[in-house]
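Researcher: Batch entry, complex prediction.
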Amino acid sequence: MAVSSWIRPEQAGLTVKSRHPNSRFVIDALRASDRVVVTHGHADHARPGHGEVIATPETLAIMAARYGENFCQKRTPLRYGESLDMGDVTIRMEPAGHVLGSAQIVIDHDGKRVVVSGDYKRKQDPTCAPFKPIPCDVFVTEATFALPVFSHPDPDGEVKKLIHSLAVFPDRCHVIGAYSLGKAQRLIALLRQHGHQRPIYLHGAQQKLCQLYQDLGVDLGDLRPATAGEKGKPRADLAGEIVIAPPSAIADKWARRLPDPLVVMASGWMQIRQRAKQSGVEMPIILSDHADWHDLLATIDEINPGEVWVTHGREDALIRALGLKGIKARALSLVGYEDDAE
Amino acid sequence: MKAFADLLERLLFAPQRNAKLTHLGAWLESAPREDRGWGVAALNADLDLGRVKSSMVRRLATGLMDEELFAQSYDFVGDLAETVALIWPQGDAHRQQNYNGPALHDIVTSLQHAKLDDAEGMIKSWLDELDVTGRWGLLKLITGGMRVGVSARMVRLALAETYNQPVEDIEEIWPLLTPPYDDLFDWLDGRGTKPSAQGRAVFRPLMLAHPIDDDHTDSINPKDFLAEWKWDGARVQLASAEDGVRLFSRSGDVINAAFPELVEEWGWHGVLDGELLAGTPDAVEPFQHLQQRLNRKKAGAKLIAERPVFLRFYDMLMDGDEDLRPLPIETRRQRLLETVTAWQQPLMDVSPELEFNTAEDLQQWREQCREGHLNDGNLIEGIMLKARGSSYQHGRIKGLWFKWKRDPLTADLVLMYAQRGHGKRSSFYSDYTFGAWMDDGDGRRLVPVGKAYSGFTDAEMKKLDQFVRANTTNKFGPVRELKQTMVVEVAFDSIALSSRHKSGIAMRFPRFAHIRWDKPADEADTLETLKTWL
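Model: Structure tokens for the complex:
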């Protein structure tokens, strides 16, 4: 029987449903659902208001920190490597290397195996377990940076750029825009690895999750709040220091507290120079928590699945490239619909 | 190549002009002698690589990868050089880090002399060896159009600062130079003499005027100055020499193709400074008419007939090879008047001197600007005052030339939209769109009539920013729509008809005069009122 008869996209999200009455669950559900398996804590994947949430203990902790303790009715923690039976469907969590707690969902049913990668990356990240390739029949891959232009450089080189800039501009406050879950902590950990032991200052929105990372055993060193100076004047003591804030805050009112800020942005999108320039960034740091083009293709080669389903992003390019290599691939949004037509 | 590519990247991301100048200076000081000229040429968009064009870069890329994947990539990035730099196979990162790539001058001269097929091979091998920034720089060089936010003027400023020469001297000889500017660098390095303009029609740096306002007129003694009208046209310079006649814009660009009727040889050599005006010497027309000519790079016979233009001179810089600039203005004016009168050229005349004895006389002349000294009140922007006995000096010299603009018009208008500023203002909503009331039968509503981002103090900007944040009714991307309550007195120089704007009018030089915290929005001015100033 076709795999798409028991796993296919529905309005609530990618849904698993065999004939067994206890088998139904949705992965990273978009709308409130009875039972949801969550790949990782980013807001577009982990939403509040579900019945049961199955996720890694770290992801559950992140959701509780973001949405409050009552973010769902029932939490079912599932560690990496642990499995859970739901009727005749078995699921298992394996590391995805995206952010702390991020997991691939390995789903076994009817002698077939589907692996849903969630968001993943292959490059170095001291704050989370590395991606583990799992052989499977269908690999459901992300496609955020699925264009040949995305070839993310070695993170070490990017962090060195930042440290070099601190030496060249010792009087300027380096304010770095970074997403508050994952990117901020990875950047801090990389800076620490490169010997930057000075306090790092945080925007209010970054503090809670950094604290949670520290509580979960990820050492981020001396972190302090980037509170405002007196009477709205810039804080002179932040000159030459690193401040991390959400991307939306670095060019806004909030940043007025910083002395002569040098605006840095840490993101995979920074690879496109003209785009980085247009966003008002003075120093782009190319640091991505997603697999780049080469890693997407190399990972699929390594796993060698029977078929690839591509989630939204730049799926056209990835499907095209896989097709040229003779690998069966299609857009996840069309899975099931094409079969009906056949 | 690596060093030049790094420079391009630094220039692209440097937010301020001063930072860009610093980067340019550092590169000029460290670059090999043979590279400097080609780098400057590339930044000035003055580099000719013969038959090597962007289409070759495109071909290289599609030879490398599936055409559809390339098309999707190019679509996403939007810049050919950058797309190809990014998709080119990554070489050995470690090797690339310590590799400087081929020298800039080698690249340029090889490409200029290479056969097309050979050039393709060369570019390929360079791309294989360079890192991504190096590839990007090389491909920008080939595709032209650096897009790194550096003007030709900025490059000349950097040269002046780096080699400690007055920028005006560099401006003056610039039109004589061609890449790689060996004669320029020989002079700057102290190995040669300054290139000379003798016998060539080249641009001479302009003398500029300081603005004055009513508060400062008391300190000006009328006896020390000559007065002329400040015409509402475009400042130009006409140069004629053995190598031809050239009309230059105020920034030194040759605009012959746009005004062919003004650059016919008429048997005189020298340099004249003046105003390009619409109409004829007997019937000057408003600036808008001139605008139609200025918008075109080339003018055809029909446009020339429909929108005539002429030159009204007020200074003479060179007469043949004689440099008149050190002479007093009275002498220069005399020579100008005699010379131009003798030609009897239909499209050239001399701006008259305004006779006056007292400050009151002067004030009267100024009042006539708006009221219509000539038939139309919109032809004269104000009065120019030029110090008696002064020589012609490039730049804006204190105390010599003044422009005394006519009083601005003002209107009370309602703030409608706000947008963030740039640079230091990037966290403030400091760019404003304001509107006037219009009644088109469907009821009374505001229609946007202009935009301004100056005329307020820093303290006022902060208060306006607070107002914007507290009174936003809608957001369209970066633009905030505002509650229609805040009235601003806007000063502007004139109003013209415009088919581009919904209101049908366009304001010239609008800026804030006062913020009317007190005034209710429904008492602001109407579009009808604004149109009375047309």
